[in-house]
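Here is a protein:
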Amino acid sequence: MAGDIDQIDEEFWSSLDSLDREALVRDTVETIHSSNQPLSLAGLAQRLPPTHDLESLAVWLGLAREADCTIGEERETLDLTTRDDQNLRFHVPLLVLDPAMFENFEWEP
């Protein structure tokens, strides 16, 4: 059955645009290393704007836990704009992503 690719619904193409977790982890660790200073999640988001808001935040929190970063009770506000120009505000733990903690970091997917 032949079909016209232009007839495929936009929602179908959007569903294929999933987060590449391994690429995000690699880019995140590189961003943390190149910062030469500790970063909060908001600071990381400024340097590496997330393409998949909640998924990216979940990966970043997972990285922080795996690197034994201290996650305390304090919170910070993280404002993001989605690909379809919606503004989102998240209240996330205030944590420190210190480059030294990621020197020998290995991600286990």
Notes: Helices lie at 10-15, 21-35, 41-47, 53-66. Residues 34 and 71 are 22 Å apart (CA to CA). The chain has a mean pLDDT of 85.
